[in-house]
Amino acid sequence: MVKHQPLQVYEKQVFVSFVTGIYGCRWKRYQRSQDDSSRWECTWFIILCSSFFLLLFWAYFWLVAQNDFNDFNWSVYNRSGEWRDETIPILASTTVGFSYITFLMILALFHISFGQQLNLYWVHKIGVLATLLTTISGVISVDDVWGDEWDILLVSLQSTAPFLHIGALATVTAISWLVAGYVVRRERSNFQVMVMVTYIIILLALYLAPLTFTCPCIMDRHGLKHRPDIIGRRGAPMLAPENTMVSFNRALQHGATSLEADVTLSVDGVPFLMRDRTLKRTTDVSKVFPSREREDASFFNWTEIRSLNAGHWFLETDPYWTVENLSTRDRSRIGNQTVCSLVEMLRLAARANGSAMLNIRKPPPEHPRYRSWFMDTLWAVQKAGISQKRVRTVTWTPDTDRGRVRGFQQTANEKLSIAEMKQRGITSLTLHYSKASYREIQEYLANNVSVTVYPVNEPWLYSILWCSGVPSVSSDAPQVLQKVPYPIWLMSQSAYSFIWIASDLVSLAIVIGIFCFQKWKMSGMQNYNPEQIMLSAVTRRTSRDVNIMKEKLIFSELDNGLSSTEELSLYPENGYARYSHGGPSH
């Protein structure tokens, strides 16, 4: 007796095998399933999504925070006492983690699109969990060490919001294919309704999001003011050691119209330039005066300070990865740098017909020049031969010493009301970019208050401040801003409104079309005859990509059974088997 089993036709599914194999180590067809995913696997999918969005946020933060990498390393230095570029391992680990999680996320979405059961491989589960925990610990650490930097996210949206909106709209529109495929199923559940409502809310929020944007560069190009002046913040510290003569020269060569420096007073009353409280990071004090490397720099006399080298540290540590681009002559010049005095810097600014902005650090109360710090600074300005009107002073105790610096152009480093500024005689403000909102800048400029924003090292930040009308910016990278002859993007309000409305309408049309197609597809499958589906599988044309599983014949003996001479002939070309009784053929 011969029993026939239905002829089965299997198509090669190389891509599906690749997706399920990489995601869940299910390389064989029999290992895959189109059943609903278990709650456990759905939970892991939620963890994967959470990791993806957290890493997306983390990667975007570090992308825009490049503007402040120098300040980040300095903050770490103040805590650890060792200068290292801590951004390199962070950027490397973020790139690897984000690439890995994004790849798994794409594979998971393909699973959903193909109707395959989610089954994340245990190795990937460990990887996802490790990546998530590492990112969370990184966020906590940055919040502890560099908590103020979160403000850059809101500032960056003034430049990136229109483009992020288009990207998010395209992504959510594409996801409508998966949402529609899940919602239009024959079975109905409360969870389907929740998914649909959530998707609609997200879509509507994206459609209306531009109403909340504040983008200075969405303006009439005729209203664009002149290019902001660039102030060399400690010179050009990415090209030469900060607060040295070669650094200030480099800043002027790259378009800086003013120089900014940190002023400290020596024990014998000579103002010199030093950012740190100690001399350890930027000089060889640990070799010349090893017992005094952690001593306050203001307690050294000028002769001792002048004997220190202020350039070797730059060549040895290469803090900005720029030393390899230096010529032999430049390296030799940098290697011979000494600590710069205030008089030297002011004379350079005067020769270049520029101005200077001084961040004066008052000496501690036990310092012998504590009561005469202002007179010592004034003496240095007069000795340099530069007009006091071209010198701006920023003292970090404005209420106690403001009256003693008359004659200089006075500036404050904090936001003040217009009335308070007039009362104190302040004519300009020096504000961190996170503290200067677009509306406040416009208010200050309308009242003839000059505003300088710091630190501005990236073209996108320079562009939005340019569009805001800021007259000057303080930068660690004048060589970068010099290459920005125009805002990186500028668009009229009418042009952006057209793009916004058009993109919303196109997205809405695509979403409606996808839902209608999925509904039509599902209704067609429900009305299809199952026997026709089986016959269509059998009669499908042969090709190189189709493997036919031959019909299995199960033999069993009945009573006397079948003789050994019985012959079976199989004709795969027509899908049928023929049985014959006879002897062996010759």
Automatic annotation (TrEMBL):
Query: Biological process (GO) annotations?
Result: lipid metabolic process; positive regulation of neuron differentiation
Where would one find coiled-coil regions in this protein? Answer: none
Single GO molecular-function term? glycerophosphodiester phosphodiesterase activity
Of the GO CC terms on this record, one is: plasma membrane
**Membrane topology term:** Multi-pass membrane protein
Transmembrane ranges?
42-63, 88-110, 122-142, 162-184, 191-209, 495-517
Q: According to the lineage, what is the superkingdom?
A: Eukaryota
Q: Which InterPro entries does the record match to this protein?
A: GP_PDE_dom, PLC-like_Pdiesterase_TIM-brl
Q: Where in the cell is it found?
A: Membrane
Is this entry keyworded Transmembrane helix? Answer: yes
Chief subcellular location: membrane
Q: Name one Pfam family in it.
A: GDPD
- PANTHER family xrefs: GLYCEROPHOSPHODIESTER PHOSPHODIESTERASE DOMAIN-CONTAINING 5A, GLYCEROPHOSPHORYL DIESTER PHOSPHODIESTERASE
Family according to the record: Belongs to the glycerophosphoryl diester phosphodiesterase family.
What is the recorded name of this protein?
Answer: Glycerophosphodiester phosphodiesterase domain-containing protein 5 isoform X1
Organism, per UniProt?
Scomber scombrus (Atlantic mackerel)
